[in-house]
Amino acid sequence: MERIMNKICKKAFIFLFIVLLLQEFVLLSQTGASNPPLFKVSVRSAVLLDASSGQFIFEQNPEEEIAPASLAKLLTLYLSYDALKMGLVRPDDKVLVSEKAWATKGSKMFIEVGKRIELKKLLEGIASISGNDACVAVAEYLAGLEEVFVGRMNEKARSLGMVRSQFKSVNGLPAKSQYTTASDIGVLAYHYLKDHPEALKIHSLKKFTFGGITQYNRNGLLWLDEGVDGLKTGWINDNAGFHLVATAKRDSQRFIAVVMGAKNQRTRENEALKLLNYGFKNFSTVKVFEKDETIETISVWKGKSNQVSLITAGPGVVTVPIGEEQTLSLIKRIPKRIFAPVSRGEKIGELVIALDGKPLKEVALIAQDEILAGNLIKLLIHMTLLSFILPPYVGWIVLLVLLLLVLAASAIKRKAK
Asked: Would residue 70 show up in a list of annotated catalytic residues for this protein?
């Protein structure tokens, strides 16, 4: 009996092993090359996102709060380019250097008190060699006081959705209750490049000369990878560690890698490059539809026109694992009935891009044209028709009441006879 039991146990073990082996094989075949395994990078926190779609495709402790160091300068540059774009200032404006700007510690452009320096030169110094003094000079020029400019930085951060960030200085120098996260910095870098792609020209400067002093860009990846053209380094002390926001473009793709809290400069560069390579080798950026593309024409009630075309408010760009581009689908979310008046550009519905049924991105569907309210006759006709197809179905109730009245009148008439 014992021998028989041993044989049964042995066979059961072999069978279980085969089942587990087959299960592992099935899982591997389902995963395939299009779903590379996640990995860790040797930093406190990190994210990787597609610069075209804004999708995050890698996250490691993305919400850990860390001192921003010089990454705060991305907001200073962002607001500066906003001002240039709005025509509030010009690149060749001469900025007067205050004593406060001159005395700023840390990495410097070595600007001098009382001198006037072109705004574009100060922005180059901030982007390439991380000039703390240049940040203060620019902030004072744009807002009068550094403290006022810091307030604008925080307003901008909130408008971008940076919900776990607070800035206390224009250059990231140490300050109490100043913090950010890798996720928020990723959001900042995405919108910055989207709104001001021209800024890459100064972020990619390998060296910068001012006042007879030549300094080199602290982003070592500019020399290591020809596709890298930005964006910003940061370091305050060993507690916060070394930060880097790196962006690179290869063919038509661009990715943004954020690493924070690395132990040294070489580590932050190696890990950022690892993330960028991961993105380029494993993910595809797909444009499913263009901005202003007509998706559907729908009926409009109570309007001068009976129809309106719905167009996309923005391009439908998503990031998917390589090989899964053909599995994308579109889901329309459009109300059953639309009523005039309708404003041009008014949001009517949404178009959702999904991968295997899972939503990836939602783009608003807006009215292509304005639809004014119809005249009185059309309103009465449409109201009558709608009363038959919309709850509480007043039209049918009225007909039923009329029918009952007719039947009652007929019955009374018959009795009278």
From this structure: yes
Assess whether pLDDT exceeds 90 at residue 165.
Answer: yes
- What is the amino acid identity at position 181? T
| Active-site choice (70, 98, 107, 128) | 70
Say what the pLDDT of residue 390 is: 60
Q: What share of the chain is helix, strand, coil (3-state, %, to 5)?
A: 40, 25, 30
Q: Kindly report the pTM of this predicted structure.
A: 0.82
Q: Is the pLDDT of residue 155 over 60?
A: yes
Listed in sequence order, the residues at least 6 apart from 272 whose beta carbon sits closer than 8 Å to its beta carbon are 221, 244, 246, 257, 258, 259
Which is catalytic among the residues 130, 165, 169, 183?
Answer: 130
Residue with tokens 């178009």: 351
For domain 291-367, give the fold. Answer: Peptidoglycan synthesis regulatory factor (PBP3), Domain 2 (2.60.410)
Q: Give 370's contacts (C-beta < 8 A, 6+ positions apart).
A: 341, 342, 343, 344
The CATH architecture that domain 45-287 belongs to is 3-Layer(aba) Sandwich (3.40)
